Amino acid sequence: MVAASMLKPIHFNLAAGDLDLISGGPPCQPFSAAAQWAAKGRRGMTDFRARTVHAFLTIVESFLPKMVGLENVQGFVSGVASALPAIQDELEMMRRRTGVQYHLDWKIVNAADYGVPQNRRRAILVLVRDDLHDKWKWPVATHVGDEVTAWDALADLSETILPMAKGKWTALLKCIPQGWNYQWLTNRGGGEELFGYRTRYWHFLLKLAKSLPSWTLPASPGPAAGPFHWDNRPLTTRERLRLQSFPDDWRLAGSISSQTKQAGNATPPLLAEVFGIAVTRAINYDAPARIPTLLINKTPIPALPGRVEPIPAEFLSLVGTRAAHLGTGKGPAPRMPTKFQESI
Predict the structure, then answer these.
(1) What does the pLDDT read at residue 331?
(2) Does 92 have pLDDT greater than 90?
(3) Is the pLDDT of residue 335 over 80?
(4) CATH superfamily of 12-145+268-283
(5) What is the mean pLDDT of the segment spanning 272-286?
(6) Sheet holding 102-110, edge to edge
(7) Spans of all domains in the chain
(8) What SS3 string covers the chain?
(9) Is the separation of the CB atoms in 199 and 325 below 8 Å?
(10) 175 is catalytic
(11) pLDDT at 37
(12) pLDDT-based confidence at 78, cuts 50/70/90?
């Protein structure tokens, strides 16, 4: 790897200011909500992995591109772990050193609003050089209320090798309707009461609904963590890629767990294409508007819902009244960010 301080535009036969765009996505773990439950908590810019944000901005200062794009989890721009103050400080120092000013604009967007068959909220940050500031326009959300569904993405896909659900609880998947999770088996659902309401993570025994976009695909799901296919099994790699809007000619290397992680960590290509079109129009304002090539067509949903089966005998002893979660703010608290800097 070449250190950011060693990168100079001359290596690419570019003068500072010639490059149109630099885009990237720093590691999300320092800013993710899930990291709050880890031993060292969600630490934002104090996490050693957040050094990549500083390195990224060093590259920006070397090239001074017309625009810069950053993508990350919602916590990247909100809450106690937000990277925004550090980015704003570095942009001001960059302006003093180079005389070039960037305008920072950001939004939290849902990929499903742009045609991706998955509810996936991401923070998008755009840095626009001063000479193009009035040209940048956020792309219009085209699918609000008309989302592309999991069925649209998967209906025509034929998989020859299907994974099997493993673990203690996955035998209960067949007892849960599509679009539900373990809460079907609480006093708020329609099945037997095996669990207390809101006493498990949302993705526990979570199943896709044919009529809705998928829930966010995780990178490292446990054996009982969904979303599962409505046929009561884990998703295949190809299905995960479809729900992320990848073209079918893409392949992932490595083990199944590695492929699951790669698919879950990816930015949906369709979302990237939508924003790429908007960037193109900002840089070349005369460029015609065009329809993204990765859009997924609608497919009629069959009328037959999935069958819900009775509770297996091995779980009947668990049936009974279960205590619900105590309420907002009354359960286990996440860990707060620490103030120290971890060394590599």
Answers:
(1) 62
(2) yes
(3) no
(4) Vaccinia Virus protein VP39 (3.40.50.150)
(5) 91
(6) 21-24, 67-72, 121-129, 102-110
(7) 12-145+268-283
(8) CCCHHHCCHHHHCCCCCCCCEEEECCCCHHHCCHHHHCCCCCCHHHCHHHHHHHHHHHHHHHHCCCEEEEEECHHHCCCCCCCHHHHHHHHHHHHHHHCCCEEEEEEEEEHHHHCCCECCEEEEEEEEEHHHHHHCCCCCCCCCCCCCCHHHHHCCCCCCCCCCCCCCCHHHHHHCCCCCCHHHHCCCCCCCCCCCCCCCCCCECCECCCCCCECCCCCCCCCCECCEECCCECCCHHHHHHHCCCCCCCCCCCCHHHHHHHHHHCCCHHHHHHHHHHHHHHHCCCCCCCCCCCCCCCCCCCCCCCCCCCCCHHHHHHCCCCCCCCCCCCCCCCCCCCCCCCCC
(9) yes
(10) no
(11) 47
(12) confident
List the catalytic residue out of 28, 153, 176, 278: 28
